[in-house]
């Protein structure tokens, strides 16, 4: 089955490197409960979104099936199928990286859907703003923010439908 991808006009790439470091979370008594992923890279490029479909996303030629969590220098599969299944726990990856994100864009599918207020409070309580949009606009916003040098993340659910414009 031939997959149809909607291509985005994204030809700008971030040039400034970002550094990640290890962050340990403890119970206050000195016992380490969790260690977050750390990566230092000055050669990698941002995971700009070059297209999307009902099946997933195209990140600079890499096709990712299903929902995706995007960071300034990487991405992860995100086990979320619809906006009503988004929880604070499912958004925790955005709170674990350094440097801290300024903003997370949530793409909720073909249309913008409000999410549980606990999710917004969770991120805002950690100093991260939240912007909810339909996935098409969330893709464009994420690319724009990265191109502008902002520390942004995105949590994107593939749209249920994709409309195509025929060009002659």
TrEMBL record:
It is found in: Mitochondrion. Keywords: Mitochondrion. GO terms for biological process: mitochondrial respiratory chain complex I assembly. Its main location: mitochondrion. It holds the Pfam family DUF498. CDD domains: Mth938_2P1-like (cd05125). GO terms for cellular component: mitochondrial inner membrane. Belongs to the NDUFAF3 family. This is NADH dehydrogenase [ubiquinone] 1 alpha subcomplex assembly factor 3. It comes from Amphimedon queenslandica. The lineage of its organism: Eukaryota, Metazoa, Porifera, Demospongiae, Heteroscleromorpha.
């Amino acid at each position: 089955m031939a997959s149809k991808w909607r291509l985005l006009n994204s030809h700008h790439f971030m040039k400034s490197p970002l550094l990640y470091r290890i962050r340990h979370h403890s119970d206050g008594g000195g016992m380490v409960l969790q260690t977050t992923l750390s990566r230092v890279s000055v050669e990698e490029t941002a995971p700009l979104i070059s297209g999307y479909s009902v099946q997933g996303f195209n990140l600079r030629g890499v096709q990712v099936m299903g929902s995706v969590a995007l960071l300034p220098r990487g991405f992860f599969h995100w086990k979320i199928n619809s906006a009503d299944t988004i929880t604070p726990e499912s958004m925790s990856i955005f709170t674990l990286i350094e440097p801290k994100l300024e903003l997370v864009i949530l793409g909720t599918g073909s249309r913008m859907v409000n999410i549980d207020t606990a999710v917004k409070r969770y991120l805002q309580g950690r100093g991260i703003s939240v912007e909810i949009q339909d996935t098409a606009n969330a893709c464009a916003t994420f690319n724009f923010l990265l191109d502008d040098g902002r520390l942004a993340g995105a949590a994107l659910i593939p749209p249920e439908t994709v409309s195509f414009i025929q060009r002659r």
